[in-house]
């Protein structure tokens, strides 16, 4: 087939295809002409029903069509919540950051800080629920620490916020959970004969998580690590601290026996 014939056939074919496309019905936007009040009402109903993607569509339309005023700002706040509930923590955090940057003095900016913390808190659940994965030394605790920082910032900047008390409770939980994780890492090293690493990790717990329940176990691990490293004086010192602060610790008989046998 020569080039002229190919062009002859291609022309009518392209025209037919274009005509076919023009015959396709245009997608009708049922929300066209809706007031901002109606859009927001539909968004709220969808949120209440758990239809988060539908709700997000309405909220996006509010921000696109009515970018100024209280409805736009409320839509931005609701977007944070919707993304969080829809299992999109990264998107929720990004939406919270945008709101905080654009509206630093908004009366409800504390909510954006709180939801940012909640998104990181939920992402850290793997650490909090399991505490000790198969490889303790390589677990990323960044999201738990970021949640801790988020709630700390909320409690510091907005101490009278209705979300502040919940943030403080979550801070306590995160602090204790991170301490427990560090103790498990120290024990992991201890059980594998990495005594220097075990002692360093236990000392880290004592220095940074002194008022948590993990302190008792950290002192026990530190004592054992010192015994294994041939440092009886340091082992005795850590054991005395354990005896003074936790006289009912079930580890005391075993640790005393170890020190005595070490001579």
**Radius of gyration computed on alpha carbons:** 30 Å
End-to-end gap: 100 Å
The count of strands amounts to 0
Unreliable spans are 3-9, 133-138
Structure description:
The protein is mostly helical. Helices cover 75% and strands 0% of the residues. The protein has helices at residues 3-23, 36-48, 52-65, 70-85, 89-102, 109-123, 125-130, 142-157, 164-191, 195-208, 214-228, 232-245, 252-262. The longest helix has 28 residues, at 164-191. The radius of gyration is 30 Å and the shape is elongated. It starts with a helix and ends with a helix. Mean pLDDT is 87; it is low at 3-9 and 133-138.
Short structural summary:
This protein has 263 residues and is mostly helical. The protein contains 13 helices and no strands. The chain has helices at residues 3-23, 36-48, 52-65, 70-85, 89-102, 109-123, 125-130, 142-157, 164-191, 195-208, 214-228, 232-245, 252-262.
């Amino acid at each position: 087939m020569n080039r002229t014939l190919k062009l002859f056939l291609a022309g009518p074919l392209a025209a037919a295809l274009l005509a076919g496309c023009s015959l396709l019905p245009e997608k009708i936007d049922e929300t066209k002409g809706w007031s901002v009040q109606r859009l927001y009402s539909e968004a709220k109903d969808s949120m209440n029903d758990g239809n988060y993607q539908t709700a997000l569509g309405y909220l996006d339309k509010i921000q696109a069509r009515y970018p100024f005023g209280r409805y736009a700002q409320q839509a931005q706040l609701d977007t944070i919540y919707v993304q969080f509930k829809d299992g999109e923590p990264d998107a929720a955090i990004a939406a919270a950051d945008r709101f905080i940057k654009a509206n630093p003095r908004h009366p409800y900016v504390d909510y954006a800080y709180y939801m940012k913390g909640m998104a990181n808190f939920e992402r850290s659940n793997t650490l909090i629920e399991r505490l000790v994965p198969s490889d303790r030394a390589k677990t990323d605790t960044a999201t738990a620490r970021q949640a801790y920082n988020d709630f700390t910032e909320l409690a510091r900047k907005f101490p009278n916020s209705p979300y502040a008390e919940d943030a403080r409770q979550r801070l306590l939980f995160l602090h204790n959970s991170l301490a427990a994780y560090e103790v498990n890492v120290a024990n992991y090293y201890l059980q594998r004969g990495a005594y220097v690493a075990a002692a360093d990790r236990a000392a880290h717990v004592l220095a940074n998580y002194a008022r948590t329940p993990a302190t008792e176990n950290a002192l026990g691990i530190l004592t054992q690590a010192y015994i294994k490293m041939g440092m009886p004086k340091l082992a005795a010192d850590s054991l005395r601290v354990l005896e003074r602060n936790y006289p009912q610790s079930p580890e005391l008989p075993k640790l005393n026996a170890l020190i005595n046998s070490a001579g």
